[in-house]
Write a structure and sequence with these properties.
Largest sheet: 3 strands, mixed
Structural class: mainly alpha
Strand order of the largest sheet: 1-3-2
Distance between the termini: 27 Å
Number of strands: 5
Number of helices: 10
Helix content: 40-55%
Order of helices and strands: HHHHEEEHHHEEHHH
Bound molecules: zinc ion
Number of domains: 1
Strand content: 5-15%
């Protein structure tokens, strides 16, 4: 592992939690109709809902591993088939109603990378695989209707008189999934930080471009947000 990824990780680990909400929402076309502060308010609501779910599930599933919880909910975990010519690295995908595809090889390489560089402390005793599966567990829970806020239609995109079209901000489900994972596994940081080393394990070039996107987002938002660094 080169020093460059260590420097990148050092920087990302200083990012406030609220920054990662905007990171989640940056590619959501519907959420782009909102100001940063409005995005922040919606994300906070999604986060709060997910934390309540996580606290409740912790009681229900105490002492069980994430794999056991998924199995107990009838969910199978399979290795992700290879994807050709894709510009995005996929770590895992939940396919309704009962299948999670996991990029197990990538999680193993990332695990080794974090251990070799001393960044494994951010996992708080869990494995990269467990963290990714916890994220998918939230999607399972949300698909069962247990996360009403993130499934609701938040924004009016067209309205004339009494006729109105409202749309969901789908990326709020990702905010919820990360908040759930962090609370359920007692992590000290937003699991979005793992996007970088996971991407790096697939391609150093893609990791650099991801890092540049994160830096640009940071630069473009830090003036108008209710946080400091
Ligand atoms: Zn997700």
């Amino acid at each position: 592992m080169s020093d460059e990824i260590v420097d990148m990780m050092d920087f990302l680990l200083k990012m406030p939690l609220t920054f990662w909400d905007l990171y989640a929402l940056q590619n959501d076309l519907i959420s782009q109709r909102l100001s940063y502060s409005q995005q922040h308010i919606f994300a906070q609501e999604a986060r709060n809902e997910a934390i309540v779910i996580a606290l409740c599930k912790k009681k229900t599933y105490s002492q069980m591993t994430i794999s056991e919880i998924l199995a107990c909910n009838g969910i199978s975990v399979k290795n992700m088939p290879p994807v050709d010519c894709d510009s995005k690295v996929h770590f895992a995908i939940f396919e309704e109603p009962s299948l999670v595809y996991l990029n197990r090889k990538l999680t193993e390489i990332c695990q080794q990378l974090l251990e070799q560089t001393g960044f494994d402390y951010i996992l708080n005793g869990h494995s990269v695989e467990e963290i990714i599966l916890a994220h998918e567990l939230y999607h399972v829970i949300a698909s069962a209707g247990e996360a009403p806020f993130i499934k609701k239609k938040h924004i009016s995109v067209w309205k004339i008189g009494k006729f109105e079209i409202r749309k969901r901000i789908t990326a709020l489900e990702e905010v919820g999934a990360m908040a759930f994972t962090q609370e359920f596994l007692d992590l000290n940081l937003c699991p979005y930080v793992l996007d970088l080393p996971l991407t790096y394990c697939q391609s150093a070039e893609m990791a650099q471009s991801l890092y540049n996107r994160i830096l640009n987002l940071w630069q473009s938002t830090k003036g108008g947000l209710p946080w400091t660094m």
